[in-house]
Amino acid sequence: MRFPQFRLALIVAVVAAAAAVTGPSQAATLKLRGTVGPGFTIQLKQGLKNVTKLRPGTYLLVVSDKSQIHDFRIGGPGLNKVVTGVSFVGTKTTKVRLKRGTYNYVCDPHRTLMHGRFKVG
Ligand SMILES: [Cu+2]
Fold first, then answer.
1. Coarse DSSP helix, strand, coil percentages of the chain, rounded to the nearest 5 percent
2. Cα 79 to ligand 1 centroid, rounded to whole Å
3. 101: containing domain
């Protein structure tokens, strides 16, 4: 008679164990934060610091696009991605795989004013 309850408890325990295993690796995913607009500014930060140098690896890139006249594109070895298009306003998240080399981020319509670069190595 108590068998179903035991099975439920077992399932709960297994799910909790799986969450404990997957939790730390997700939390460890390195996050980069890009911001473009509302003025003629573009930036890429890790925590509070502007990104100038990173280790190779996979990063979660969260871009806040605060204007209808700017886009946010990131490019470099193996990567050329428009994360937020010109007309888009809001936040988008994407995964980027960074290899050794020099990367740049840019707003295409205003590329001479709005650009930055960083090294991966
Ligand atoms: Cu722009």
1. 25, 45, 30
2. 20
3. 29-120
Q: Which of 85, 82, 77 has its CA nearest to residue 105?
A: 82
- How many angstroms is it from 56 CA to the middle of ligand 1? 28
Residue with tokens 């650009």: 115
Phi, psi of 86 (to 5 degrees): -55, -50
Give the Å distance between the CA of 100 and the centre of ligand 1: 27
Beta strands 30-36 and 57-65 are: parallel
pLDDT in tens, 40-75: 999 999 999 999 999 999 999 999 999 999 999 999
Residue 23 domain flag: no
